[in-house]
Amino acid sequence: MTGTVDIRVSTADAVPSRASRRSVTGTARRILFRLANAVGVLWAAATVTFFIQAVLPGDRATLILNQETGRAVKRTAAEVAPINRRFGFDDSLFAQYLHYIGGLTHGDLGTSYQLKQPVTTLIADQVGPTLLLTVTALVLAWAIALVLTIATAKRGRIRSALGSGFEVVAAGLPQYWLGVILLVVFAINLGWFPVEGGTGLSGLVLPALTLAIPLAGFLGQVTRDEFEKVLDQPFITSARARGMSDLDVRTKHALRHAVLPAITLSGWALGALFSGAVVAELVFARPGLGQVLVGAASARDIPLVSGVVMLVAGVYVVANLLVDLAYGIVDPRLKDGAS
Amino acid sequence: MTVELAARRPHTSDAGADSHGDLLRVENLRVGFGPPKAHREVVKGVSFTLAPGRCLAIVGESGSGKSVTARTLVGLTGRGSVVQADRLELDGRDLLGFGDRQWRAIRGKDVGFILQDALVSLDQLRPVGKEIAEGLKLHGAGTREERAEKVIDLLRQVGVPEPELRARQRPDELSGGLRQRALIAAALALDPKLVIADEPTTALDVTVQAQILDLLEATKARGKTLILISHDLAVVSRMADEVAVMRDGEIVERGDARAVLRNPQHAYTQALLDAVPSAHSRGQRLSPASPPRVQVSAAPTASAGRGAGPEIAPPVIQAEGLTKRYRGPDGLDRTVVDDVSFVLGAGETLGVVGESGSGKTTTARIALALVEPDGGQVRLNGEAWSGLPERQRRARRRQITVIYQDPLSSFDPRWSVERVLRDTLDPAAYGSDAARRQRVTELLELVGLQDEHRGRRPLQLSGGQRQRVAIARALGPDPSVIVCDEPVSALDVSIQAQVLDLLVDLQDELGVSYLFISHDLGVIHHISDRVLVLNEGRVVEHGDADDVFYRPQEPYTQRLLAAVPLLERRAATDPIRSAR
Amino acid sequence: MSTVQPALSPGGLPGSRAVAAVAWERLRALRPGLTLAALALLFILVAAIAPSLLTSRSPTSIDLGATLQAPSAHHIFGTDQAGRDLYARVIHGTRQSLLIGLGATALSMSVAISLGFLAGLSGRFVDGAINRLLEVVFAFPVLLLALLFVTVFGASATTQIVAVGIGTAPGYARMVRGQVLAVRGSGYVEAASALGHSYPRIIRRHIFPNAMRPLVVVVTLGLGQSIVWASSLAFLGLGVAPPAPEWGALLDAGRGYVTKAWWLEVVPGLTIVAFALAVTTLGRYAQQRLEGANQR
Fold this sequence. Notes:
The complex is a heterotrimer of chains A (339), B (580) and C (296).
Chain A: H1 20-54, H2 60-69, H3 77-87, H4 93-105, H5 119-152, H6 157-172, H7 175-189, H8 201-231, H9 234-241, H10 246-283, H11 289-298, H12 302-330
Chain B: H1 2-8, E1 24-33, E2 40-50, E3 55-59, H2 66-72, E4 81-84, E5 87-90, E6 93-94, H3 100-106, E7 111-114, H4 118-121, H5 128-138, H6 144-157, H7 163-167, H8 176-188, E8 194-198, H9 206-221, E9 225-230, H10 233-239, E10 242-247, E11 250-256, H11 257-262, H12 267-275, H13 300-303, E12 315-327, E13 333-345, E14 349-353, H14 360-367, E15 375-380, E16 383-384, H15 390-394, E17 400-403, H16 417-422, H17 433-446, H18 463-475, E18 481-485, H19 493-510, E19 513-518, H20 521-527, E20 530-535, E21 538-544, H21 545-550, H22 555-563
Parallel strand pairs in B: 3-9, 3-10, 7-8, 8-9, 14-19, 14-20, 17-18, 18-19
Antiparallel strand pairs in B: 1-2, 1-4, 1-5, 5-6, 10-11, 12-13, 12-15, 15-16, 20-21
Helix pairs in contact in B: 5-6, 5-8, 6-8, 8-9, 9-22, 18-19
Chain C: H1 15-30, H2 32-49, H3 86-121, H4 124-138, H5 142-153, H6 157-184, H7 187-194, H8 199-212, H9 215-235, H10 247-254, H11 263-295
């Protein structure tokens, strides 16, 4: 047994004995910084979205006219002029950009080409069921991942292999396929759940599982890796040497450390769940943003699609802010402590 | 000094007579790991007994099985382990065949367990008060309020100031000494009869180590039975009543601590004792495994080193008023190196010693021009060195090389030893492939490695071999000075002895100078001609090694030296300093 | 670490546990998962290169007398609404599916490696800027970004490749950057600069090869992911237009028949899952080997 004294660290050698006053301003500063960062990301996301629309090959007015008539033909200048005026396509790109960003600041996402309604209204009508589905799936995924990790990580080779095997397979499952399998088995063959559009609790089960199982596999892999590392740490031995039982060591000590990496991923996961919800809603014919979005994408209804994309970017940003706060609660050590 | 130490320890020569009152009886303990086919035995028939109130030290190098032996006593040898013994008794209870529930009842309550480095041995996400209360709660001691009170009490007992505040802080908010105290408080919470401390001071600075050893001694004085696991004989010599020396899973020697340390019977114990570098070992070889080289050359530069006055040798490095500031996480500047000046002469060794945070590593990096000083300057071989554009410095970098503490991370994992060494050669001097190959052979020979090591990757070498490759790499460019940054801190004492011997030999042969950084005062005294003592970035004291160590002028140096646990010396081998 | 003490008495492991342990070791030695994955991948590769070796049927020959037949000895994967043999369609769709996956992975990796190295090797300003950019792209989930691309540029194989490639790039770019930073801060890079080697030389001889090493694994894992994403897009009806027998397109075509002919949806999906699992298994194995080699 050898000592590893004084490795090459030159800046953080001093004993960490900071006053509590500093940690309070530190937290405030960190939250402010995060907020500014979040606004910055949203602004940049809006800019990206705008310019992807702007680089559209061909003429947007023609696209709209073709959508209305259902025929793809070349349009004359006289035909496209009123459309250009209505959607402001005549303005300079910069003016259009300002208009777009200006609209965003008070919740205006533009007007749908196809449905001729404000995008904000269309989204507001449909977002409820999708939000319910994603949040349910996130909670479910966490529950599955935690139970699996506690029950199988480092519990003998066979149990561990089963647990991690399940995670690898689950994480690799495409949502559409899992959805179809669940639908065929539990709704069509066994008839336990409604086949289509169930809006109640029973209709929520299969779509939520469709989204939750792959995510659980992913979160489980991350948590398990960390959990196994933590269980080898000396403080775990310390706890056992005090007479703590295995289950208590897992739930009261190891778990808190092991969930940290998966927590940081949860903000991203919520965003990913939103896009997964599109698939699940389609498979189970559930009302929600998915139906609207797929319809809009195939009809090339740019404002509607980019509106949904902006919404999800917003969800991602907000979720990440919440994750940041949650992280601070689980891990009270100052993250910027020794950077 | 020896006399003083001996007087501090109570006489215990009559111990062991009352074997029926033993707290712990272990007979023929064997511990193995792995499945039947690949079964690996790490403890091979260990026996010992321990009477109440006494302290047993189990000493050994890595892989000796000392920690596993200790863990057997709390049933924490881990999954896949097989524990067998003829007898395993604690306080009259048979531990053989204990189930999980029975073990849990014992842990914490009858046996307290203290691990190395409290930063990782305490849960970093929780306040230390909660950790200390945990054992009380698990064994159903008192109400929540009573437990909270007891925690404050315990912290006060182990000498933690402001216990109410400290109980609410997390390990990372406490200094190394305080959190080690907290860890000890947690182990003492339920007043266990037996306390096992597994390397309790290994990661600590020497002054903090002294405080923790005082605390353990006080614990023993209160009647606790203590098992101390350590690689450090000096730590052990201070308070152990009995010593068991382990190697490869066996106890090679066991007996009264004084007898074992003063008059070791087993060759391994002797070698282990001889390997410890200190003031006494100056000018002597530390390891029997490294006999003096045949060609002890009488190079004029070499004789200028050891023992001679510092002003004779022409300076290799001149550092003047070095200052370096870093911005801390709080946005405030911290002066890490503050007005440090020194001169390193040709063929001599300048030891830089200090505790963590003293700025010694930053000083080394400034000397290597890997860090630019904010103030002051370094001259190398009489020419400007710091403050130059890197382009101008590059060609001269061959004059100063470095050996790191952790050799593994300083090697590209894909590269063979041969490639590592070839990379150091000056293409101008070694133009042909044959010349380069010849030089690599030469370097390997110099550091005592065989031709077979050429093709190996550093990962496939042992720690000692790896450090030899690191030395060969430092020698490759034929430098006038090598910066040694804690080069032996990660090594077992017997390997450390070999590496130190090698460094001394190489200096004699090649006349190279060393800027030798270490936290270990024994190592520094052993190897240095002159010494620089650093504290909080400032030079506290400097001068001839013997002057600094035997006649320290500054209170800080005196405190530092007083904190070093000293090994009692056998009269027979008391060193007569041989002039080289 | 566990608190279980299997045997404190002389005599070693209890019998039944020993037998189970030996059986488990044998099973592990065979590496059934790895073997299966390798076989599956081999099959898929043959299907992509020379589909006619695996089936003599045409993927497009219509047989209106045998529509929507369940899997049987004659049509092992069943038939679709036009009586086309699903097995032949899956086999013949392999090449196109793999090309889309490979294209997306190649694009994704080139973007990731360029940005990752640029960020990892540059100063704070460039690094910060690239990090911000990646963070912004992260805000768009892969599938949604792909939907936006399809909306703007129209559905095609190229759109699929670009959308999936761009969407998955930020994750890999961060990984590359992390690798580069880790290697750049390593002891051996410092040792090389202390020896007086120039920065470009250090990048070429140390940083580049060591940072690229783990990417071999990432590429295999990414290939599986790309195919899954591309097929998800196709499932939504936004992939390559039918009648091309690409895997994703088969999924899209079968979507309307889930209640009547489950195999039209389950079989192509299973193929994609099998492929993704096979490459994941091999990738993870390679990762273990690599880490093992680093630790030994």
